Amino acid sequence: MRFLRVALMAAGLLSIASVKAQTADEIINKHIEALGGKDKVAAIKTMYTEYDMEVMGQQAPGITWLVNGKAFKNEVDFGGQKIIQVVTDKDGWAQNPMMGQATPVAMPAEQVKMSQANLDPGGPLFNYAAKGYTVQLLGKETLNGKEAYKLTAKGKDTATVSTFWIDPSTWYLVKSTSKSNLNGTEMETSLTFSNYKKTDYGFVTPYNMEMSMPQGFTLNVVSKKVEINKEIDMKVFEMPKQ
After folding, report:
1. By CB count within 10 A, which of 12, 40, 169, 213 is most buried?
2. Is the pLDDT of residue 69 over 50?
3. Residue 140: which pLDDT band, with cuts at 50, 70 and 90?
């Protein structure tokens, strides 16, 4: 019996050690592997997405264009009124007729800096150290009845703190939150992800996203088409001349 007790104690200690040995890097590596692997993600040059958005009972089609590290554009059409946001590695601009912006206006530098995270199709966890992020593993947390690993990421040149929840059964990202300060106002945006699918390119991405906005409303986005490394004309990001 003594040997049995010793064996059980040893097994318990090994179990604890294996839990403690799970590091942020191991979790992130499994997450990236689930998306297609480091080489596949690193080789993404462009991403083109067509989607449908539902907000406050209204449906609106949208398109995003992304050129890795260079430019990102989101355009959504509400009954003929196009809301446009563009950010590049240098600057940005926006147009929102529903908020009185009938013509394009330059994006404030602080907002450009925050929005430039959209230039990376791999997200902040991919090659996070090389991009100046510090990541911390906070353990596990129950999310919608399932356990998920919880990590935080913070860039050295930004006050934004992002939190990520990764499902250990699929290694997909199921939720993220972002806390930032814009013009002295604390803002938090929450995203939940589901319906992951593999694209023709082999990159796995969520086709359903729910975004909880600081203004108190929720956006539901369903992707209809995702194309990787489609040729994109850089002119699409240019701010129209007045």
Report:
1. 40
2. yes
3. very high
- CA 54, CA 62: separation in Å to the nearest integer? 10
Do 191 and 211 meet the contact criterion of CB atoms below 8 Å apart? yes
CA distance 235 to 213: 30
Window from 112-116, 185-189, 213-217, 221-225 with minimum mean pLDDT: 213-217
CB contact burial 66-82 (16+ within 10 A = b; e otherwise): bbbeebbbbbbebeeee
DSSP 229: S
14 in any annotated domain: no
> Residue 175 sits in which domain range?
24-237
Tens of pLDDT along 92-112? Answer: 999 999 888 889 999 999 889
Tell me whether residue 15 is in a domain. Answer: no
Residue 6 lies in a domain: no
For 103-145, strand residue ranges (E) read: 105-106, 133-143
Answer whether residue 7 is part of any domain: no
User: Which amino acid is located at 10 in the chain?
Assistant: A
Number of domains comprising the chain: 1
Q: Give the CATH number for residue 164.
A: 2.50.20.10
In whole angstroms, what is the distance from residue 241 CA to residue 83 CA? 17
Model confidence, pTM:
0.85
Handedness of CA 30, 35, 39, 41 (dihedral sign): negative
Taking alpha carbons only, the member of 220, 227, 210, 239 closest to residue 56 is 220
How far is C-alpha 36 from the geometric centre of its chain's CA atoms? 16
What percentage of the chain exceeds 70 in pLDDT?
Answer: 87
